[in-house]
Every structure is written in C-alpha cells, then in structure tokens.
Specification:
The relative contact order is 0.09. The protein folds into two domains: about 80 residues, Arc Repressor Mutant, subunit A; about 50 residues, no CATH class. Helix content is about 55%, strand content about 20%. The protein is built from five helices and five strands, in the order αααββααβββ. The chain is an alpha+beta fold. The two termini are about 40 Å apart.
C-alpha cells in the first residue's frame, strides 16, 4: 500500500469510471487498474464491482472512508513539516477587545512578522448574542483586513 495507490483509489472511487479517473490523474487505464488490483490483493478484498457499471463494494466503502482519513493526515503532516523547515511555527496568543484588535493589532503584527502572507483565526465573542464567532484575517506588513464568518 502506498500514498499514491490510495490517491488513485480515491479518484477512481469518486469518479466511478476508470477512464475518467485515469484521465484526471494523467495516467493510463492499465496503470490505474494495476494499482487498484494491488490494493485488492494486499487486503484480500474486492473494492469495486465492475459489471454492469463500476461501483464500490462494502469493502470499497470502508476503504474510501479510511483512504480519505489517511490522505488528510498525510497532507497535514506534509504541511507541518513545511512549516518546520521554513521555521514558521509556534503560537501567538493575545487577549484584546475587538476595538483594540482592530486599532492596534495591525501595527503589532507588522512589527512582529516580516515575511509571507499569513492567515490567522481569531475567535471572538459577540457582545450581545454570546455566540462564538470566528474572524479570519489576512495580515501583511503595512496592511490589515479581515472577513467575519459565522
């Protein structure tokens, strides 16, 4: 089993058509079928019913669930390694009111960070509803803007 094999399986399972999946992956149908066959041999199960049309078996449904989880974990791991290599890691925790954040944080951030564009999530409490709300902001030295999301 490889990450590549899981990626190929996931694409085939989402497309439910070997030709379209192979085209989307820029590989031949034979290569895609070979990867799926190796997965089936490795686990000793049939992942797809091929006639009359391509569809997932119960084992294929389970593989789809776990493949999504494994590929998501691999993506997060790769992103974390990229942060470590570029020395872009750590936590910055600030406690400010909304008004002070809007007035002061842009200047603080511009002095603190002198690199690439960064995205932060700033949890805020609404003054009257008490409902938690997230504010996604973009910060660059000299500029500050954001958009609220419910």
């Amino acid at each position: 089993m490889s990450i590549l094999g899981l990626t190929y399986f996931l694409t085939a399972a989402e497309e439910l058509n070997i030709s379209r999946a192979a085209e989307k992956l820029y590989i031949s149908q034979q290569t895609l079928s070979g990867h799926i066959q190796r997965l089936e041999e490795h686990y000793g199960v049939e992942l797809f019913r091929r006639k009359p049309t391509l569809r997932l078996t119960p084992a294929g449904e389970a593989m789809l669930f776990y493949a999504r989880q494994m590929l998501g974990a691999e993506h997060r791991m790769t992103a974390q390694f990229a942060d470590i290599v570029s020395q872009c890691r750590g936590h910055l925790r600030l406690g400010m009111s909304r008004q002070r954040t809007q007035a002061l944080f842009c200047g603080i951030w511009a002095r603190f960070y002198t690199g690439k564009l960064q995205y932060l999530r700033l949890p805020q409490r609404r003054q009257y509803g008490g409902r938690r709300r997230e504010r996604r902001c973009c910060f660059m030295p000299g500029r500050c803007w954001g958009q609220s999301t419910a």
